[in-house]
């Protein structure tokens, strides 16, 4: 009996599977980041509902928030490089399945314990997915992938926060409805991801990659050290809007509406996403400086607004801070990622997200403790804002002291920041396809 050759079996499998075209696959992957970050911000408007039903304090809210950040960090640290060895698709499909399980846990949660378990599962799956999906987009199109890695998180955070707020306010059974809706999205995405081509060749060392190791390739170390303080500062701001923001906004506007509770994070995130697109042609270092300036100005405005109890000024400051968030994060991503090789992208991107989630989680948990054991919500919010400004100024000092990041071998600098040679244009089709 004649058996088909391995390459013939591969071609038959590909034909029967009808893989999604590369351009459509790119947007599918971007949508996975959007849905994961939307799911992460979906509980934000629900915290007041949980607090009223289960009778916990503000520190519990920030602990739930912080546990998620720690779980993401753990997923990034342990699973962040796995897709460089076993492929992007297996990691993504598994992460999406775990995220769907988290939605079921959320929808059936009856207390803080179940909520914490759901947040841990959600965080671990998000940590596993972020590096893999971001690297897959870089595999398909390096220039667009770099921008999408900065744009998609803001869009997802904004979408999840606002949609969840409207569900809580206007639809029945909000603690079930929003999660079941996301569950349907994840189910569809899992099927679609199974139809895309693998974007990286498998390499040995999968088990070794699971051993936590914080190591940067030599070619990106200078750039990463320049970008890390900025990324930490801007995500500390996101931590504020995700933990204390809803309660503070409802206090300022004198309303218990869940829509108001999610509106602050929505404004921050949607302006962030818009700024990524608006500044995508500027130099990465220029974008980072812009981000720091806007972050300081925006947070200063929100502090004045809190002191004056002026909601309109608070949202104006939030919008300015959103420019800072989007610009700072985009500048950091674009300074580092184009310097990576294909089998380094997942690990390096995971390290950048580790810095981000440290910035988001640690200050938020500390602030929750201060709300309960310190001066209360408003004074703690003012102190948090002052810390964010201090972090932004420290990031500025670090950039000025370090100077322009040095690019590695085989790298040139264009108007859009450092790009690995050869530099592909936005219109070019992806060229990295594993067969």
Question: Strand order across the biggest sheet?
Answer: 1-2
Radius of gyration, Cα only, in angstroms? 21 Å
CATH superfamily: MFS general substrate transporter like domains
Choose one word for the global shape.
Answer: globular
Mean pLDDT level? 81
As a percent range, the share of strand residues is: under 5%
Total beta-strand segments: 2
Domain module count: 1
Task: List the uncertain runs.
Answer: 406-435
CATH class category:
Mainly Alpha
Structural class: mainly alpha
The main β sheet shows up as: 2 strands, antiparallel
The H-and-E topology, N to C, reads as HHHHHHHHHHHHHHHHHEE
Please give the alpha-carbon distance between the first and last residues: 27 Å
Summarize this, please?
The protein is mainly α and 435 residues long. The chain has helices at residues 6-17, 22-41, 47-54, 58-79, 83-86, 88-108, 112-140, 142-170, 174-193, 206-209, 221-243, 245-253, 258-278, 284-308, 311-336, 345-373, 377-402; strands spanning 411-414, 417-420. It has one domain (23-203, 218-411): Growth Hormone, Chain: A (Up-down Bundle).
Textual characterization of the structure:
This protein is mainly alpha-helical and 435 residues long. The protein has a single domain (23-203, 218-411), classed as Up-down Bundle (Growth Hormone, Chain: A), CATH 1.20.1250. Helix content is 75%, strand content 2%. The chain is built from 17 helices and 2 strands. It has helices at residues 6-17, 22-41, 47-54, 58-79, 83-86, 88-108, 112-140, 142-170, 174-193, 206-209, 221-243, 245-253, 258-278, 284-308, 311-336, 345-373, 377-402; strands at 411-414, 417-420. The chain has a two-stranded antiparallel sheet. A hairpin with a 2-residue loop joins strand 1 (411-414) and strand 2. Helix 2 (22-41) packs antiparallel against helix 9 (174-193) and helix 8 (142-170) runs antiparallel to helix 9 (174-193). It is globular.
